[in-house]
């Protein structure tokens, strides 16, 4: 089979879609990290094989509330996206639950 060009996808998302919008080098590194984590053959293969979808450090890549379908149907994936909660829970990004309080403290001290 063909080898999927993940570097092309990363470049497209990082440069074409977000290029020029991210002017902070730290934010660009974070975007790059997310692209490597969520747009990879490792993630896709573990998802399709029913794996636990764990990151390199052993933690889950997706929170337990999010489960990718084992199909190629866009409608199945659309259903997952449409059923996500409205609020962006910190756990979805691998952050601790109390991160908002920390953020509020930093903002108020500034």
Which regions have little confidence, pLDDT < 50, spanning 5+ residues? 48-59
Number of strands: 0
What is the percent of helical residues? 40-55%
Number of helices: 5
H/E series, N to C? HHHHH
Give a short account of the largest sheet.
none
Task: Please give a structural write-up.
- 49% of the residues lie in helices and 0% in strands.
- It is mainly α.
- The relative contact order is 0.07.
- Residues 48-59 have low confidence and may be disordered.
- It comes from Characodon lateralis.
How do the strands and helices of this protein lay out in sequence?
Layout: H1 6-17, H2 25-38, H3 41-48, H4 74-82, H5 99-109
Task: Spell out the key features of this protein.
49% helix, AAA_lid_11_sf, 5 helices, 110 residues, mainly alpha, AAA_lid_11
Describe, in short, the structure shown.
With 110 residues, the protein is mostly helical. 49% of the residues lie in helices and 0% in strands.
């Amino acid at each position: 089979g063909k080898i999927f060009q993940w570097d092309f996808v990363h470049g497209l998302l990082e440069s074409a879609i977000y290029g020029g919008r991210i002017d902070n080098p730290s934010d660009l590194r974070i975007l790059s990290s997310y692209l490597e984590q969520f747009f990879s053959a490792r993630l896709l293969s573990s998802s399709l094989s029913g794996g636990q979808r764990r990151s390199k450090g052993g933690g889950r890549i997706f929170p337990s509330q999010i489960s990718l379908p084992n199909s190629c149907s866009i409608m199945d994936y659309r259903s997952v996206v449409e059923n996500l909660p409205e609020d962006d829970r910190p756990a979805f990004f691998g952050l601790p639950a109390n991160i908002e309080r920390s953020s509020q403290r930093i903002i108020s001290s500034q």
